[in-house]
Design brief:
It is a single chain. With about 210 residues, this protein is of the alpha/beta class. The protein contains seven helices and 14 strands. Strand 2 and strand 3 form a beta hairpin.
């Protein structure tokens, strides 16, 4: 069984997720730690709960979701894993950080890419990678059928959706991703978004004003 812990990090208040199992192993998704204080918050949580990081997954590679990638590599020897289409976004991380005057260090280039519908085995659990582009060209959502949740990145929020006006974004593609990949999940599926509170698929199908 997977448990989910979230942290709101960096000036964008991005949600970083730690997924952990009964074996005290964990996955870090979208590490957004911006400074030593935020790095300490994550580290102390892992130590307090005796968790060993095993994987680093990125839903996408916009700057607010990758600020902590280098720290995870340096501290835990975790290599970034993402969809191959996100390489174009990852490649401009330093340029984007400079625009926002953010401290940022590039992590090593990913050595393993995640494909659509790929099953990521983790202990007794499985995450299914869902290709959900539109906010960025290679956005992935990570779905756990056994544990009834999906990590949606910046594709779907509580009564809102991700931006599609950033480089590589496309509104029509974003709508298709939401309707055909996320809204087809069981209605009781919990949605952990890249920003803001969690929501439920069934709630968004009824009350999200941005999805027709």
């Amino acid at each position: 069984m997977l448990s989910v812990q979230s942290f709101a990090f960096n000036p964008f208040q991005e949600n970083t997720y730690v997924l952990y199992n009964e074996f005290k192993e964990c996955i870090i998704i979208d590490p957004g730690m911006y400074n030593a204080s935020e790095e300490a918050i994550l580290t102390q949580y892992l130590i307090a709960n005796q968790l060993t990081p095993k994987l680093l997954l990125n839903t996408h590679c916009h700057i607010d979701h990758i600020l902590g990638n280098y720290f995870c590599f340096q501290k835990y020897n975790l290599i970034t894993q993402c969809h191959v289409e996100e390489m174009q976004v990852l490649a401009i991380g330093q340029t984007t950080a400079n625009v926002y005057e953010l401290r940022y260090t590039d992590a090593p280039t990913p050595v393993q890419f995640i494909a659509d519908n790929e099953l990521i085995k983790f202990g007794n659990d499985t995450l299914q990678a869902l290709f959900t582009p539109g906010h960025s060209p290679g956005s992935l959502s990570f779905y756990s059928a056994e544990n009834n949740f999906v990590i949606s990145g910046d594709v779907l929020f509580y009564q809102s959706i991700g931006r599609s006006d950033l480089p590589g974004g496309n509104f029509k593609t974003l709508m298709q991703s939401i309707k055909t990949r996320l809204f087809t999940l069981p209605e009781e599926t919990k949605v952990y978004s890249g920003h803001g509170p969690a929501t439920i698929v069934g709630h968004e199908k009824v009350y999200n004003p941005f999805v027709e």
